[in-house]
Amino acid sequence: MKAENQDIITPHITDSHALEYPCLEPGFACHLELPRWDPIHLGPLTLDMSPTKHVVMLLAAALLCLGTLLLAARAHKRQHAASGKPKGFANGIEALVLYIRQELVLPNVGKHGEGYAPFLLTLFFFILFANLLGLIPYGSTATGNISVTATLAVITFFVVELAGMRTLGKGYIKTIVYWPGDQPFIMNALLTPLMTPIELIGKFTKPFALAIRLFANMTAGHIVVLALIGLIFTFGSYALAPVPLLMALAIMVLEVFIAFLQAYVFTLLSSVFIGLIREGAH
Q: Which of 7, 135, 262, 272 is packed most tightly, with the most Cβ within 10 A?
């Protein structure tokens, strides 16, 4: 199927039921239609479970995450048995994993937080690969889809709340109902109706912030590149084309750093939220 006349940036952030692949047609891109399935009807709800481009990118990110870490673990085991220390690829992955675990996860999650390290490390690498897939030609940024980032945020929300229930036990109710034990009864009676709704809102603003932060940052870079390339057509001069192209190239290089940074920030904030609820603020 021939590619339609469209820009080269928005396909990286928009979802569709087709994948792009290189070809010699105008625009150097053709479309491969993904299968369309009959929607599922659940009462008044209609669910379209057909795969989309972002679904494919998420599956690719999961497979890359799984393959990279398993290959690194296998190489680490083989090299450690042969020479007593890893090297090359395995050494680099080990250094990154140890840094995330020792410097980011454990200090923020708190004591006995080793059990949360696998989840947070998986979160980091999955988001990282999903971000990077949006920077390659004919790829797409699944994390530029608010549905994807919202799903990641909701999963993190449940992990945070379950961590609070597991650590605090009956004291978990204090993360919902404001009732500090170091104040007179009359003060608690006056403050509880005011502060309890704020505590509840705070629980939901955290995942909301996670979703919007990742979505906005991964979308913004592509929009800036589109705007810079659009300057060529705005001025209508090929003589000025190298300037916006160089600026767009600089933004794309910066986007590689942003891909790592946003995976790091999402993991950092998730670690902080888990640590806060485990400490029992009240």
A: 262
Q: What is the DSSP letter of 146?
A: H
Distance separating alpha carbons of residues 219 and 216, to the nearest angstrom: 5
Beta-carbon neighbour count of residue 203 at 10 Å? 16
Give the max Cα distance, the chain: 77
Q: What's the CA gap between 244 and 69, in Å, rounded?
A: 38
Buried b (16+ CB within 10 A) or exposed e, 254-282: ebeebbeebbbbbbbbbbbbbbbbbeeeb
How many domains does the chain divide into? 1
In a domain, 259, yes or no: yes
Look at residue 117 and tell me whether its pLDDT is greater than 70.
Answer: yes
Give the predicted TM-score (pTM) of the model.
0.88
- Arithmetic mean of pLDDT, 170-179: 82
Helix (H, G, I), strand (E, B) or coil at 114: helix
pLDDT digits (tens, 9 = 90+) for 5-28: 445 566 777 888 888 888 887 767
Quick: pLDDT tens for 249-282. Answer: 888 889 999 999 999 999 999 999 999 998 864 4
Q: Which DSSP state fits 100?
A: I
Cβ atoms of 228 and 247 closer than 8 Å: yes
- CB contact set of 35 (below 8 Å; sequence gap of 6+): 50, 51
The arithmetic mean of pLDDT across residues 119-145, rounded, is 92
- State yes or no: pLDDT of 222 exceeds 90: no
Which structural domain, as residue segments, surrounds residue 14?
Answer: 10-34+51-279
Rounded CA-CA distance 131/116 in Å is 23
Q: Is residue 121 predicted with pLDDT exceeding 80?
A: yes
- Residue 175 CA to residue 278 CA, distance in Å, equals 10
Residue 105 resides in a domain: yes
